[in-house]
Amino acid sequence: MALVLGVTGGIATGKSTVLKMLSDLGALTLSADTIAHEVLAKDTPAYRQVFERFGSEVLLPDGEVDRSALAAVIFTDPVAREDLNAITHPHIIRRVREHIDSFRRSPPSPDSVLAIEIPLLMECGLESMVDQVLVVAAEQETQVGRLTSRSGISPQEALRRIQTQMPVSQKAERADIVIWNDGDLD
Fold this sequence. Notes:
The chain is α/β, with parallel strands linked by helices. It has eight helices and five strands; from the N terminus they run βαβααααββαααβ.
């Protein structure tokens, strides 16, 4: 039977890497982050709402959303984070549901897998949209190291961002499958 697998975990745990590996194994894949980029594309309804709420400080010179500037705001201001989520999540969830519904109606084969990376799957209460939940987990020290090296932020800022999400250990307790990813890619 075709399977919808929700891939989630904390920031910098390796969700995208696991999604790529699942793709290499033949799964169809989708990323809520990719959908979020589409939702915030210039002149979309969500883009206009973000501009109204946050102003031109979160825009690049070409008018596109400056994701780094927006992250700097939402990771230091819980109200701003809630406002952004209220703007973007309905659009993202609707599109994810459309993809899942289409896959369920017409899977490529009876044993097809659709793996969807949804970082806030549990926080948004979306577990019922998927058949199984795979959590990619890593120790906080690993997450901090990855975030500081890939994003150029301080360890304190990395820790602040990690702490805005549900602890990975709680996600792991609720998962069907857990991949602990503290090692290197090999």
